[in-house]
From TrEMBL:
Protein name: Uncharacterized protein
Domain of life, source organism: Eukaryota
Organism, as annotated: Nymphaea colorata (pocket water lily)
Amino acid sequence: MSLLFRLMPQSNAILDCSPIAAAGHIIPQSFVPISVSQFMDDLSTEEMTACNHVENNY
């Protein structure tokens, strides 16, 4: 099993800032926890938009 696979959270996991807040960092009020699957979907949508924008400029 690769290290990346071990570090990758499960798709049903929730990303939140609890560890960051526990370390004393300030978390903006606008932040809301998000599922890993939603984060990955949003990320791939942004990547597709960026790729289409670059292709349209040529």
